[in-house]
Amino acid sequence: MKISNETMAARIEARFGERVKRVASICDELTYEVPKDAILELARTLRDDPEFHFEQLTDACGVDYLTYGEDEWTTNSATGSGFSRGVAREPVILDESDSFDPRRFAVVYHLLSVANNIRLRLRVFAGSNNPPMLRSVVDVWSSANWFEREAFDMYGILFEGHPDLRRILTDYGFIGHPFRKDFPVSGNVEIAYDPAKGRVAYQPVSIEPRTGVPRVIRDDNRYAADLKDGAKSG
């Protein structure tokens, strides 16, 4: 039997009250923001209580909200300064900072209740500490193991209590976290054969930074409505 989003929302808000905050969703998926210190308790309740019974964690992914909501490009027509506008902007490197914006890094958990035939998303911000850190939910859903490793690898988010938190997609010698918004597109290092060492080795990246210009859709008379096949003649 499928439970509607509003029915499940009423159950969640009755149980957790002001500890959760509903987030608007353009794809009509039930989403709540949860405090970082409450994620483990809420996760266990959402899994074990038959009112919810979210027995599956189908995904957990990191998010970097740096520059979120900023309008970098004019998309209706070409930008005033074109390509130079992109390359002139210096990246904001925050890895050495003592703290981050508390709403910069988040983890989004995608839950599924097979019994109730409904999905739920939880968003948890990692706070201002550097490095960002959340409690691991591996003990609640074992599928979180590799999801949390991916969020660590790509975003540098640590998960307290994870049994084996190490990189999963990049190499052991990789520098930085490539899905962070301030990570350079060309990376920090590259791999090349070093004749002096007689082996493949890391070296500073030699690729010049570049920024792609967003595609600009221009008017084209080939697509004019009155020129299409079957158009009514005057």
Query: What average pLDDT do the residues reach?
Result: 84
CATH class, named Alpha Beta
Reported CATH architecture: 2-Layer Sandwich
> What is the CA–CA distance across the termini?
57 Å
Q: What's the total count of β strands?
A: 9
Q: What value does the Rg take, in angstroms?
A: 23 Å
Helical fraction: 10-25%
**Beta-strand content bin:** 15-25%
CATH level-4 homologous superfamily: NADH:ubiquinone oxidoreductase Nqo5 subunit
Query: What is the overall silhouette?
Result: globular
Would you give an account of this structure?
The radius of gyration is 23 Å and the shape is globular. It has helices at 5-16, 39-48, 83-88, 144-155; strands at residues 21-22, 31-33, 56-64, 105-113, 118-125, 133-135, 158-160, 189-194, 199-204. The longest helix has 12 residues, at 5-16. It has 234 residues and is of the alpha/beta class. 17% of the residues lie in helices and 21% in strands. Strand 4 (105-113) and strand 5 form a beta hairpin. Residues 82-94 have low confidence and may be disordered. The chain has a single domain, classed as NADH:ubiquinone oxidoreductase Nqo5 subunit (Beta Polymerase, domain 2), CATH 3.30.460.80.
